[in-house]
Every structure is written in C-alpha cells, then in structure tokens.
C-alpha cells in the first residue's frame, strides 16, 4: 500500500475558514481539501437545497425532448420506456415509466435480455416496439452510441429520445433528442449525472411544464440516490443534492419495492454505503441471474403483498449470484496463477462457460486482488463478451479505444466498461491491451494507494468531531469519508484476531496520554504480529461508530498499519 497524504492548505486559509464557520481547524482543513473555502459554500455542502438543482432546460435538446413527449401524449401515441438491465438502467426505467403513467396510460417498459440481446439498444427491442405499435422510445442509461439501431428504428417510423451519461462517440445517433451532459456541445453545468439522474432531469422538465415544482417529484429521488451509489458516479455538486434527499426518501417514505427489501434486512437507517451493498446488489441480481424486468416490476409495484413476493424472488436471485460469483472468482484466480509468467500490467481471463451475469463482479474482485486493469471474458452467442475494471487513476475506456481494431463493440466509463469481440480476435486483443496499458500506465498506479486527509492525534477524536464528520455524508467518489493517520500508537495488550479463521484484526490503542480507542481492521488479521507486544506503529483509518448492547462508541476503522 502507498500512503499519500493530501497537501495541507495554507494555514491562513484554514484559520480564516475555521473562524468564519466557528469550527475546529481540522474540520476547516477537510473542507478546504474538498474545494469549500467560504461560509456560503460550506452552507451548501452541509445543508444541500433542492432549490440549487440546475434548470433542466440548460441541457442540450431538453426542450426538444419535452416537446416530443408532449406531442406523443396529445396524439395518444404509445410510449416505450427502454433501459439497460443494471441498477442505473432499471431504476431509470422505473422512474420514467411510473412518472409518465401517473398522468398518461399508454406507457410500457422494456429491458433487454442480458444474454439474448446484450447491452444497450437492441434490434429485437425495436422490433418489439414496431410489433406493438410504439412510435416513441425513451432510452435511458444507453443509446448514445446506438447509431445503427436508431437508424433502424427511424426506418420503421419510431422516434428515439436518448437519456444517457456515457461518453459519446465521434458521431451521434439520428435521434429526436439526445440528453447527455457529456456531449461536447452540451453546456449543462454538471456532467457527472448517472443515467437515472438524466431521466430525473427530464421528468423535472416535464413537470415544470405541467405546473409541478420540485416537491412534486421528490418522491422519485429514492431511485436516483440508488443509481448514484450503484453506478459509482461522483457525489459532488448536483449528485450530492440528489443523493442527500434521495436517502431521506429511502429512510422516511420509501416506495413499496424498497420497503419490501428493507424489511427483509431489518436495518433502521440506511446510508449510501448500505444502498450500495444491500439494495443495489439485489436489484442488479435480477438482470444478472434472470431478467432486469423483475427489478422494474419490484420498483414500480404499489401493492405490498405483491412487492414482498417480488422481493423474495430477487433475494433468491441474489443468493444464487453470490454462489456463482465466488465459484468463478476462484477459477479465475487459478487461471491467473497458472499463467503468471505471461502476466505483466494487466489481467485478462476467459472461460466459455462462465456466467455472463457475474463477470463484472469477478473483474472487480480480481482487480482488488492483483490491482491491475482487468478483463473477464465469457462466451455470449457466437462472440465473446467481457467486463473491464480498472485501478485508481487509469482510464480503461481510453485503453480499449487503443484496441478498437480487435473489438466489435464497447462502451462504459473510466473505471468500468464492457465489450464484445469475435473469438478469433481474443489473443490479438489480449496482447494489444497489455501493450496499450504498459505504454500508458504510470507503474505507481499498480500499487494500491490510500489517500490520507490529515494526520491526527488520538486525543482530538471526540463525539463533537464525530457529529460534524457525519454531516459530511453522503460519501462517495469526490467526497470520500475522511481518512486519517495517527503516528506512534500502540496496542494496550488487547489485540487479537476475530471472525472466521481470525481474518479480522481487533485492537485497542493509545497514543501518549490519550484515552483508549478501539479499532477494527477487516481482512487485516495477518497484521496481528505488527501490533502485539505493545510495539509502536502508525495507523491509517476512518472514524466509525460501534453500537453494542445499546451503547455507542467511536472506533477506528483501520485501512492499513505500518
């Protein structure tokens, strides 16, 4: 692990902000490191306001999209809401369809089959639209690169409105409207929305034309917050506002589908982390193991008894997904170990029988283990399909562009992407991917990095600091939970391994005359010898609250020790 301490802001800036906000200098330092330097910016950070959401009509083509939907409704057209099968796509479809159905009946949904159709807009989906009399398709979380599919639809007199957030290619589809803040010609003030977020901007615009205010569509933010967390987009700017209020909806007035999931897990208050690791995997499991439409059905259901049945089915999908995920990960690890002499800057593995629905998860696990750009391939029809994952700082999407000669189709983000290619191009692609990564990656990126916000004394950790740090939430990319380093601490003789096979490390530390603070290091049981015998060490950690038998105490959530 590389430990990198963030540059400390100028002391005069820390003093000025601490004085303006009447907060501790450590808090002022953390805010400045997040680009917050004035009282007004701090107010917006700690108290996000829905009124600060941007005007949706600032997005390129928004006025055209709204006009086309209004025309469809006025003329009684059938509207098909189409979306990808992952969390971002299914939440976006649930959002758009349930909003339109609240005042117009001729709306249906379509999620492509992961195995029969693959990612994004499909010819089969367009044929379905034609066969069933749909003349307008609203595509969410996909479509910005579907040039041939949109042209095919146009031949059938079917119009497209695309709501996407992926990076466009050099040419755009011939759609009626393309809402994508990453378009070069789009001047929308915030370009990190997820697909569901772009969909929300569209219903915000539609609502404003009907006289609705933001309070009339706040109910849909539980879906947006879930997509923001699951799609790992930055929780900054507009996303922070949407996630903040979306979490309030999840915790105070969740839709029936979410309530059916939450009731199963028996957790009173959910954070964005809970959304990412509890709700999102269950929604994703539908598309991975069966069909994404199951997730849409759950998220749009209004009858609790039916929702409980849907949630139970999805829980089964998720259990099956976990078993497959573990099995395939082990096989992939063996494959990498067997071919270690061939490996350099990348990990690329393939087996034709691996379940397509979990290769993305497996790619993430392999990246965590070997920490290098990773692709996991499986057979999909007459082609190979792969999920790609990357390491911090390296743009795997750009690397795939450097291999475009061997790829049939690809899309995605800086850290996660998907692609298909012909089987006879697999070895060519594998060698080219290794070559591109080797030539473009900084070798330092292949060493996991922990970014430390500040060096702290244990005596400065107290309930007041914890209360303020909790207000930094929701956490995520662009606003991670603050990470601290404490130097020259030692265990009080309490250190031990805990959990299955003592995989985790439990400690209780002091530093000079500080009070004792407990700490837990998950999957750090192998570091027990570093802390026994009261040997001094440095620790990197975030702060967490531990609840035990009704008592709440602050604990260190260890990330590494040296």
TrEMBL record:
<dbReference type="InterPro" id="IPR001667">
    <property type="entry name" value="DDH_dom"/>
</dbReference>
<dbReference type="Pfam" id="PF01368">
    <property type="entry name" value="DHH"/>
</dbReference>
<dbReference type="GO" id="GO:0008409">
    <property type="term" value="F:5'-3' exonuclease activity"/>
</dbReference>
<feature type="domain" description="DHHA1">
    <location>
        <begin position="349"/>
        <end position="439"/>
    </location>
</feature>
<dbReference type="Pfam" id="PF17768">
    <property type="entry name" value="RecJ_OB"/>
</dbReference>
<keyword id="KW-0269">Exonuclease</keyword>
<protein>
    <recommendedName>
        <fullName>Single-stranded-DNA-specific exonuclease RecJ</fullName>
    </recommendedName>
</protein>
<dbReference type="InterPro" id="IPR041122">
    <property type="entry name" value="RecJ_OB"/>
</dbReference>
<dbReference type="Pfam" id="PF02272">
    <property type="entry name" value="DHHA1"/>
</dbReference>
<dbReference type="InterPro" id="IPR004610">
    <property type="entry name" value="RecJ"/>
</dbReference>
<keyword id="KW-0540">Nuclease</keyword>
<dbReference type="InterPro" id="IPR003156">
    <property type="entry name" value="DHHA1_dom"/>
</dbReference>
<feature type="domain" description="RecJ OB">
    <location>
        <begin position="452"/>
        <end position="560"/>
    </location>
</feature>
<dbReference type="GO" id="GO:0003676">
    <property type="term" value="F:nucleic acid binding"/>
</dbReference>
<dbReference type="InterPro" id="IPR051673">
    <property type="entry name" value="SSDNA_exonuclease_RecJ"/>
</dbReference>
<dbReference type="InterPro" id="IPR038763">
    <property type="entry name" value="DHH_sf"/>
</dbReference>
<comment type="similarity">
    <text>Belongs to the RecJ family.</text>
</comment>
<dbReference type="GO" id="GO:0006281">
    <property type="term" value="P:DNA repair"/>
</dbReference>
<keyword id="KW-0378">Hydrolase</keyword>
<feature type="domain" description="DDH">
    <location>
        <begin position="78"/>
        <end position="228"/>
    </location>
</feature>
<dbReference type="GO" id="GO:0006310">
    <property type="term" value="P:DNA recombination"/>
</dbReference>
């Amino acid at each position: 692990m590389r430990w990198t301490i963030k540059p400390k802001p100028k002391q005069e800036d820390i003093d000025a902000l601490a004085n303006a906000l009447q907060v501790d200098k450590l808090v002022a330092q953390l805010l400045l490191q997040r680009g917050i330097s004035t009282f007004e910016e701090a107010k917006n950070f700690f108290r996000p306001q829905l009124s600060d959401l941007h005007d949706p009509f600032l997005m390129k083509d928004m006025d055209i999209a709204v006009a086309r939907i209004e025309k469809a409704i006025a003329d009684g057209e059938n509207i098909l809401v189409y979306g990808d099968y992952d969390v971002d796509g299914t939440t976006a479809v649930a959002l758009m369809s349930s909003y339109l159905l609240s005042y117009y009946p001729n709306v249906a949904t379509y999620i492509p089959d992961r195995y029969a159709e693959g990612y994004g807009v499909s010819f089969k989906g367009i044929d379905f639209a034609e066969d069933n009399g749909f003349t307008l398709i609203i595509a969410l979380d996909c479509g910005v690169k579907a040039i041939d599919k949109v042209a095919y639809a146009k031949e059938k007199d079917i119009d497209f409105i695309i709501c996407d957030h992926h990076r466009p290619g050099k040419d755009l589809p011939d759609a009626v409207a393309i809402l994508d803040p990453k378009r070069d010609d789009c001047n929308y003030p915030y370009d990190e929305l997820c697909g569901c977020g772009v969909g929300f901007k569209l219903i915000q615009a539609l609502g404003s034309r009907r006289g609705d205010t933001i309070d009339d569509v706040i109910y849909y933010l539980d879906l947006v917050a879930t997509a923001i967390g699951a799609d790992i987009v930055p929780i900054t700017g507009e996303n922070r506002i949407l996630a903040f209020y979306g979490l309030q909806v999840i915790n105070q007035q969740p839709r029936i589908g979410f309530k059916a999931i939450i009731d199963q897990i028996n957790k009173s208050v959910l954070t964005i982390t809970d959304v990412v690791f509890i709700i999102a995997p269950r929604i994703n499991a539908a598309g991975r193991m069966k069909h994404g439409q199951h997730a849409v059905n759950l998220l749009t259901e209004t009858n609790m008894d039916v929702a409980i049945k849907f949630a139970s089915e999805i829980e089964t999908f998720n259990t099956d997904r976990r078993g497959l995920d573990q099995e395939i990960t082990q096989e992939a690890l063996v494959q990498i170990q067997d071919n270690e002499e061939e490996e350099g800057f990348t990990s690329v593995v393939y087996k034709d029988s691996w379940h397509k629905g979990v290769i993305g998860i497996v790619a993430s696990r392999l990246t965590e283990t070997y920490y290098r750009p990773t692709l996991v391939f499986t057979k999909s029809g007459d082609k190979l399909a792969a999920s790609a994952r990357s390491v911090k700082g390296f743009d795997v999407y750009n690397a795939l562009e450097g291999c475009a000669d061997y790829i049939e189709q690809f899309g995605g983000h800086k850290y996660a992407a998907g692609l298909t290619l012909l089987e006879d191009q697999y070895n060519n692609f594998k060698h080219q991917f290794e070559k591109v990564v080797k030539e473009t990656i900084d070798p330092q990126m292949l060493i996991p990095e922990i970014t430390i916000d500040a060096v702290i004394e244990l005596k400065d950790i107290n309930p007041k600091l914890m209360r303020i740090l909790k207000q930094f939430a929701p956490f995520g990319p662009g606003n991670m939970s603050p990470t601290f380093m404490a130097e020259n601490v030692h265990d009080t003789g309490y250190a031990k391994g805990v959990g299955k096979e003592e995989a985790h490390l439990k400690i209780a530390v002091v530093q000079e005359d500080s009070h004792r603070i407990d700490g837990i290091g998950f999957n750090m049981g192998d570091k027990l010898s570093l802390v026994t015998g009261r040997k001094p060490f440095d620790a990197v950690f975030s702060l967490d609250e531990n609840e035990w038998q009704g008592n709440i105490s602050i604990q260190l959530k260890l990330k590494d020790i040296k």
